[in-house]
Specification:
The chain is an alpha/beta fold and 323 residues long. It is 46% helix and 10% strand. It folds into two domains: 130 residues, Rossmann fold (3-Layer(aba) Sandwich), CATH 3.40.50; 111 residues, Rossmann fold, CATH 3.40.50.
Length: 323
Amino acid sequence: MAGSGKEWRLRASLTLLMSLSVACSSTDESESTTPQMVAAFYPFAFVGERIAGDHAVVTNLTPPGVEPHDLELTPGQVVKISDADIAIYEAGFQPSVDDAIEQNPPDSTLEVTEVVSLLEEPPSAESHPDEHAEDDSGEFSSGDSADAPLQGDPHLWQDPTLLIPVAEVLADELASADPDHASDFKANAAALVKDLRELDSDFQTGLASCERREIVTSHAAFGYLANRYDLTMIAIAGLSPEIEPSPERLAEIQDLVQSSGITTVFSETLGSKQYADTLATDLGVTAAVLDPIEGLADEDSDEDYLSLMRSNLEVLREANGCT
């Protein structure tokens, strides 16, 4: 009887192992047939999730609370990129992502500057949104002499209409990876385009009649917003928030705030508030937050790109006396 008991337990163990093996195999097969997408940071993850729906797994490489400019990839994230069916990113914005894609390329990539033309220069304190200033070297400057020249302003999602071609091309890419759900991807893209056009209309209407059109921001992340909605951005720092403004730049902004009757200085959700808040305190004006939406803050878990943009709209309307 003892032998029979051991034999029964052995057969039961083998049966369990076989069942687990089949289950794991089925899970692996299911995962392998579901398109895997990696998005470099939040705005592109938002677009990816809206287009993919339930038909693809979207991984945002920039976790909530992390400044996208500062992103350093983990080995696991590099593997995610290599294993992905498609990666959506913006060349030059996150060097660690650029390097990983070059060294461990996924099956397909959507590099957004191939479908969207970047602004050469974010509008600065010295220029109207449609003007461009060029320094002696031929490079464009954001008004921060300490900032290194950059080949265009990467913050394109601040103009919601520029996400439309990104959404449409991404739908085509996903349709190629998963033809069975091509119609769903197209329908999801159409729904997102509708939402983006409505958001753009809300901004056009909401900022049409304002007492002031200047916005003082922590760094030059709002050039596309200014360009689209006829605002003038006065950036404390340049395209990169890590670059500290010079004393001359801070003095210049103080003079502009006082001479233009500006009532608000904007800091950001993820970046340092030091210079913006200090300026506001020294000048006796309001300190407020204008979200560049480069990434999500931990407290933004119930928010998305559309709701955060609309929150920005309300903050801008209040700061600039819009009716």
